[in-house]
């Protein structure tokens, strides 16, 4: 019996689709810009599962708050530097045709007498509309950006965001939340620190505070102290005095079940120094856990180096050496109050929080593990 010709033989083959990944859909792109006292930073990202994929970014030290402590105003040169940086951000937003964005300014613009004039100048020069956000929202956005770093074993959580002009601290009680739900409970705080009638287990915000002292403002207050070690000690104790109104301050906290998440250039620089990195590597730093003792050792090393040694140290970097001791003073004050074996280093912050909040509100993030 003659063999049967296979069905469809001789037909034109179906074209094979190229495996090359398609470019990001411009309609699905989100942007977040954080204009702080010291830096201007922006992320452009696309939702991807329960996270997001960064398409483009920008970061520049603009020192917007330089001289603000003395005059109460943004200087002409600081505003010019910042507008130049914002022009680059505007070009990136236009090139990627970003549809959804939040562009926010924080402590320097909250405090400056001429902030309104600056916001109008930015709109006129770049077309970008900056929004000055209040300390509670800044703290909330920093918290939700760190949600993926929260351990399921954590019952008491302190999130610390050390900025250029202010430092936000948020204390969260997770003991009533099932362990697997704890990171997601943190994410739900994007709706507010005091959410009610939620069908999900909620994270309880015990207390939060925005201290009007950051790495730039604290440095400026003690600039006239010549002795390096004395200046550091004064900055650290002065910052601790400003924590007196923070409710959990008086409570002794056991290290077990307690976690601090630190998000700032100070914390990531200390982590890079601890690892001995001569070239910064985010993949090694973000999520790293350090103990109080390890951090103390790094800071004592900074003091031993002195100003000239810190300026030459490749682990600190040119942009950070002038601010690292004021940031370290803040960090060590916190660790005197709440020693921990689980300080999680977060190379993330306000920008990531802005993106998570926008995407979560739009319902474009998938439900799943972080």
Give the helices and strands, then pairings:
Elements: E1 30-35, E2 39-48, E3 51-61, H1 68-71, H2 76-95, E4 100-105, H3 107-111, H4 115-126, E5 131-132, H5 135-145, E6 156-162, E7 167-173, H6 182-187, E8 204-211, H7 215-221, H8 228-241, E9 258-263, H9 265-275, H10 282-285, E10 289-290, H11 292-312, H12 324-337, E11 343-346, H13 350-362
Parallel strand pairs: 1-4, 4-5, 6-9, 9-11
Antiparallel strand pairs: 1-2, 2-3, 6-7, 7-8, 10-11
Helix pairs in contact: 2-4, 5-13, 7-12, 8-12, 9-11, 9-12, 11-12
Whole-number mean pLDDT: 87
Number of domains: 2
What would you report as the Rg, rounded to the nearest angstrom? 23 Å
How many beta strands in the DSSP annotation?
11
Strand order of the largest sheet: 8-7-6-9-11-10
The percent of residues in helical segments reads 25-40%
Q: Structural class of the secondary structure composition?
A: alpha/beta
Gap between N and C termini: 61 Å
Query: What is the C-level CATH assignment of the largest domain?
Result: Alpha Beta
Uncertain runs with pLDDT below 50, 5 residues or more? 1-6, 8-21
Architecture per CATH nomenclature, i.e. the level-2 architecture of the largest domain:
2-Layer Sandwich
The helix tally amounts to 13
Q: Estimate the strand proportion.
A: 15-25%
Biggest beta sheet summary: 6 strands, mixed
SSE series: EEEHHEHHEHEEHEHHEHHEHHEH
Form type? globular
Q: Superfamily at the CATH H level of the largest domain? A: Exopolyphosphatase. Domain 2
CATH topology of the largest domain: Nucleotidyltransferase, domain 5
């Amino acid at each position: 019996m003659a063999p049967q010709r296979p069905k469809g033989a001789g037909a034109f083959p179906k074209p094979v689709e190229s495996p090359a990944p398609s470019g990001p859909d411009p309609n699905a792109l989100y942007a977040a810009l954080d204009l702080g006292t010291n830096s201007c930073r922006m992320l452009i990202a696309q939702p991807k599962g329960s996270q997001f994929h960064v398409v483009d970014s920008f970061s520049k030290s603009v020192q917007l708050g330089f001289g603000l402590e003395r005059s109460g105003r943004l200087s002409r040169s600081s505003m010019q530097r910042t507008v130049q940086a914002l022009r680059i951000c505007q070009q990136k937003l236009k090139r990627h045709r970003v549809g959804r964005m939040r562009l926010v300014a924080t402590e320097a613009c909250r405090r400056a007498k001429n902030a309104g004039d600056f916001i109008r100048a930015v709109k006129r020069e770049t077309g970008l509309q900056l929004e000055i956000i209040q300390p509670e929202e800044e703290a909330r956005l920093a918290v939700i950006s760190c949600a993926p770093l929260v351990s399921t074993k954590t019952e008491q959580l302190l999130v610390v965001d050390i900025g250029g002009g202010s430092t936000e601290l948020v204390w969260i009680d997770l003991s009533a939340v099932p362990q697997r739900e704890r990171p997601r409970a943190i994410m739900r705080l994007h709706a507010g620190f005091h959410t009610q009638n939620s069908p999900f287990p909620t994270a309880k915000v015990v207390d939060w505070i925005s201290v009007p002292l950051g790495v730039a403002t604290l440095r400026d207050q003690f600039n006239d102290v010549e002795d390096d070690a004395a200046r550091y000690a004064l900055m650290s104790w002065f910052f601790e005095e400003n924590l007196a109104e923070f409710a959990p301050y008086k409570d002794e906290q056991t290290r077990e079940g307690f976690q601090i998440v630190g998000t700032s250039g100070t914390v990531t620089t200390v982590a890079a120094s601890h690892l001995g990195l001569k070239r910064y590597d985010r993949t090694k730093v973000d999520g790293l856990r350090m103990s109080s003792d390890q951090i103390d050792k790094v800071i004592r090393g900074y003091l031993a180096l002195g100003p000239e040694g810190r300026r030459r140290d490749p682990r600190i970097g040119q942009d950070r050496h002038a601010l690292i001791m004021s940031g370290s003073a803040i960090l060590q004050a916190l660790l005197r109050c709440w020693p921990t074996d689980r300080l999680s280093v977060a190379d993330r912050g306000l920008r990531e929080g802005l993106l998570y909040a926008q995407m979560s509100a739009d319902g474009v993030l998938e439900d799943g593990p972080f």
